[in-house]
Design goal:
The protein has twelve helices and nine strands. The chain has about 375 residues and is of the alpha/beta class.
Length: about 375
């Protein structure tokens, strides 16, 4: 079992998200950042391209005002989330140091499109199916957050809406990355990209990066015009260490929980069997009703709570069998009342079944009243 220990930083790589509308500079900025990060180690950049958006960046363009040289990277062109997951798991840290996923929006849409099961009456995906849809997506996100590679995730922008409490109308409240609801906020750094159109002709548009989320606090609340590796990544590098923390998948967490629950069940069964043996032995050693009832008082609710249902039933049957051996006459109302007062309602109910109908109802009422009082 995990225990508390002194907190320590275990982040060896940047996990950064870029999102914005089409034309906001996500792909170009991602390449600039990836090139700078890879240059620190001399390793390669791995690029997941879901829309062939890098085709003109992998070749030299002399007329390109910024970075006319070709970007050098290895690419996989696919929108299949299973292919992406397989390709990512095949990366070797000794060869690649940066991974760019462009764009996560397409992968999420592909994961939804892959669903071929039954739909609701209005044509939507039923709630029970979302777990299966999100499984490879969550596995990919867990891998990206745990890998020692720097990861840059690009995504499209979408508007967010909330219902106005006064007018009961939907109102736009902001923007976020178009992906599974909780995913945009998992990277440590989240940057919103925006292109500012020039006010005069022949002027170049400005790319503005807004640091919406920054767990380091270094970039928080800041904006950057035409962001670069030097402005976005370099200030964060001194905070990185040598070890990257592992973030377990849902399946890994479930396996740990299942193992612990199974262990607790086994321990409870062992303890229950022990209690059953001990009390059965005490019952067998009882030489009269007085001693037997003393044993019965020791079988408290707390004792029963530590036993399995079957073992409690077995112990009750054994007690009643011993009680029958000492009984020289049929059970009486007084016997049943004594059981009620002793708090042994199951024994009282068993005794009531041997009584006449009137006495039986009386004892049942007594049991009910006593249970409500406790």
């Amino acid at each position: 079992m995990a225990g508390f220990r002194k907190a320590k930083a275990e982040q060896a790589a940047l996990k950064l998200g870029l999102y914005g509308p089409p034309g906001s500079g996500k792909t170009f900025t991602a390449l600039l950042l990836a090139e700078g990060l890879a240059g620190l180690t001399g390793k390669r950049v791995a690029y997941i391209d879901t829309e062939r958006g890098t085709d003109f960046y992998c070749q030299a363009v002399p007329n390109r005002a910024v970075h006319p040289d070709a970007f050098d990277f290895d690419a996989v062109y696919t929108r299949s989330i299973t292919e992406v997951l397989s390709s990512c798991k095949g990366l070797k840290p000794e060869e690649h140091s940066v991974l760019v996923l462009d764009s996560i929006t397409h992968l999420w849409e592909a994961a939804i499109a892959a669903y071929s099961g039954k739909q609701t009456s209005i044509g939507s995906i039923p709630m029970y199916a979302w777990g299966k849809i999100k499984k490879p997506y969550k596995e990919l996100m867990s891998w990206m957050l745990s890998t020692p590679l720097h990861v840059i995730i690009c995504g499209r922008q979408k508007n967010t809406y909330e219902t106005d409490e006064e007018t009961d109308e939907l109102k736009m409240t902001g923007v976020t990355m178009r992906a599974a609801g909780e995913k945009p906020y998992e990277p440590h750094i989240l940057i919103r990209m925006e292109s500012e159109k020039p006010k005069r002709s022949n002027e170049v548009a400005k790319i503005i990066a807004y640091a919406e989320k920054d767990r380091t606090g270094v970039l928080s609340g800041r904006s950057f015009i035409n962001p670069t590796f030097e402005s976005l990544c370099k200030p964060l590098l001194p905070l990185l260490g040598a070890k990257q923390a592992h973030i377990g998948t849902t399946e890994e967490s479930a396996a740990i929980d299942a193992e612990q629950i199974e262990k607790e069940d086994r321990d409870r069964e062992v303890e229950s069997a022990k209690q059953l043996r001990e009390f059965k032995a005490k019952i067998d050693l009882a030489v009269d009703v007085k001693i037997l009832k003393s044993v019965g008082k020791d079988i408290t609710k707390e004792v029963k709570s530590k036993m399995t249902t079957n073992d409690v039933a077995t112990l009750r049957a054994h007690y009643l069998e011993a009680e029958g051996r000492f009984s020289k006459s049929p059970p009486t109302v007084d016997d049943a009342i004594a059981a009620v007062r002793a708090g042994d309602f199951d024994a009282a109910a068993d005794l009531a079944r041997s009584l006449g109908e009137r006495d039986k109802r009386f004892i049942e009422d007594e049991i009910k009243a006593a249970m409500e009082a406790t």
